[in-house]
Amino acid sequence: MAEFERKVLFEYNEPKEVGTHKVKRIKQVPKGIRFRTEDGPILIENVEKKDSYTEEELLALLPQ
């Protein structure tokens, strides 16, 4: 199995409001996509791994 690198996809100086969440950072991790919010991390598993994502694609993954 190939080594998977964790990488920051988006990081905000001021938290971005998405529904009820205030997102500080979006990171790709081996299990999926992790959102760092003011209330703590949210992990979305089983996300298709791609070389790049749009901000809109990722934010649409967050539960409302």
Low-confidence stretches: none
Task: Give a quick account of the main beta sheet: strands, pairing sense, barrel closure.
Answer: 4 strands, antiparallel
SSE order, as H and E?
Answer: EEEEH
Strand order of the largest sheet: 1-2-3-4
Q: Structural class, from secondary structure content? A: mainly beta
Provide a descriptive summary of the structure in words.
- The protein is mainly beta and 64 residues long.
- Helices cover 8% and strands 52% of the residues.
- It is built from 1 helix and 4 strands; from the N terminus they run E-E-E-E-H.
- It has one helix spanning 55-59; strands spanning 7-18, 21-29, 32-37, 40-45.
- Strand 3 (32-37) and strand 4 (40-45) form a beta hairpin.
- The model has no long low-confidence stretch (mean pLDDT 91).
Draw up the topology in text:
Layout: E1 7-18, E2 21-29, E3 32-37, E4 40-45, H1 55-59
Antiparallel strand pairs: 1-2, 2-3, 3-4
Structure summarized in a few sentences:
The protein is mainly beta and 64 residues long. It contains 1 helix and 4 strands, in the order ββββα. It has a 4-stranded antiparallel beta sheet.
List keywords for this structure.
64 residues, mainly beta, four-stranded antiparallel sheet
